[in-house]
Write a structure and sequence with these properties.
The protein has 260 residues and is α/β, with parallel strands linked by helices. The chain has helices at residues 11-27, 49-57, 76-81, 129-142, 157-167, 213-222; strands at residues 2-6, 33-37, 62-64, 85-86, 100-104, 110-117, 147-153, 173-177, 187-188, 194-196, 203-204, 235-244, 251-259.
Length: 260
């Protein structure tokens, strides 16, 4: 089973290249399932129900969110009603939405998806991601789910690496998001889990991690906060393609993808 995991969709150009490229890959049969982190899809910060529905309609099976999950309050009720859009599993349990989901694919395979929020250098209140991971894996195993994809949305590479090692052999893949910069360390860990520290951004790379570059440089030069604006340049899709053995739930391969 080939699963395409798409890194942080940022703004309008990120949505456009996702719709054009990921949807085409699915239509051609290059991938069986698409998971996308879309926490920056609405103007670079948060997501709305309208945009989420647009992404689903383009072939996405599950949307994951991160530290910008609460930026658009109008999406809160949608998080409760739509099981396929998930916020971090380790935010306080009274928060809207769900931290994981299980999707049954057309071939009958059940795929579990979990999103975790890192705590190092992150401002959003969250509990221990390691313990949250244990809890979600236990619940999925009880349902007979062996194919499990984990989105670790974190700043520190060390925290992501630690999560990958901790999960090795228990999930199909641990894939990092949040920094908007793709890393070159995709690999299969010793016990069979695919790992990638950061899949990268799906959005305008002629920018500073998605934001108009002149505004960021001005802020660095003056030290004065200014209003961020998503760059309007053409988007690039950054993703990881993971081939999973449906019987064992372990990864056969992982390939880094960047397409305009």
């Amino acid at each position: 089973m080939k699963i395409l995991f798409v890194g942080d969709i940022v703004g309008e150009s990120g949505r456009a290249v996702f719709i054009k490229t990921a949807a085409l890959m699915k239509a051609r049969g290059e991938v069986d399932m698409i998971i996308a982190n879309a926490e920056n899809a609405a103007g670079g910060s948060g997501i709305t129900e309208k945009i989420a529905r647009e992404i689903f309609a383009s072939g996405c099976d599950v949307i994951t969110l991160g530290d910008h999950v609460w930026d658009k309050k109008e999406v809160f009720s949608f998080l409760n009603s739509e099981a396929r859009i998930i916020r971090p599993a380790n935010v306080p349990p009274t928060a809207p939405g769900h931290g994981a989901c299980v999707v049954t694919m057309p071939n009958g395979v059940k795929v579990g998806v979990i999103v975790l929020l890192g705590r190092t250098f992150m401002k959003l209140l969250s509990d221990c991601p390691f313990r949250a991971l244990d809890n979600e894996i236990q619940k999925m195993n009880a349902l007979g789910v062996t194919t499990i994809i984990v989105d670790i949305h974190a700043e520190a590479t060390s925290e992501k690496v630690a999560i990958g090692i901790y999960a090795d052999g228990r999930v199909s893949a641990v894939l990092g998001t949040h920094t908007h910069i793709p890393t070159a360390d995709e690999k299969i860990l010793p016990k069979g889990t695919a790992y990638h520290t950061d899949v990268g951004m799906t959005g305008p790379y002629d920018s500073v991690i998605g934001t108009v570059k002149e505004l960021i440089i001005e802020r660095y030069l003056t030290g004065i906060p200014n209003r961020f604006e998503v760059a309007k340049s053409a988007g690039t899709l950054s993703a990881a393609l993971v081939d999973v053995d449906e019987l064992t739930g372990m990864a056969r391969s992982i390939t880094r993808i960047q397409r305009d």
